[in-house]
TrEMBL record:
Record's subcellular location: Cytoplasmic vesicle membrane; Golgi apparatus; Membrane, Clathrin-coated pit
Protein name: AP complex subunit sigma
Keyword Chloroplast: no
InterPro entries, A to Z: AP1_sigma, AP_complex_ssu, AP_mu_sigma_su, Clathrin_sm-chain_CS, Longin-like_dom_sf
One cellular-component annotation, GO: AP-1 adaptor complex
Keyword field: Coated pit, Cytoplasmic vesicle, Golgi apparatus, Membrane, Protein transport, Transport
Amino acid sequence: MNRQGKVRLQKWYLSYPEKEKKKIMRDLIPVILSRKPKMCSVLDWRDKKIVYRRYASLYFCCAVDSEDNELIILEIIHRYVEILDRYFGSVCELDIIFHFEKAYYVLDELILCGELQESSKEDTLRDVDSQDLLQEFPPFFMMQTGYSAEE
């Protein structure tokens, strides 16, 4: 979300009705935005632990189980932002607005079903770049040029 509370990306790994999701976001966003910069980036909220980090004008937040390690979650958030930075070349809010599908794809390469899937920045970027090539060159074109997906 940005500093005005506008959600730019959201990914839910538990099933909630849409009405409940909106209520959670409506209740949680002001809590995070009202916190001072020097305050801890972890807070207990309902039965979850909220871990967030601010980068420029964007907040990256995760709601995790109360027994999860918040330092690992902070590292995952940082890893995601680093990958976005390398992919977009210094990521900004406009990159996420206009290329949200890429931001989601990077997130899906990094996290699967709420668990860290790939910790390597290089492997994640390579997978995202490969996906970009597949979108740029349809399979028919790849067959004609001799391009192989195994390469």
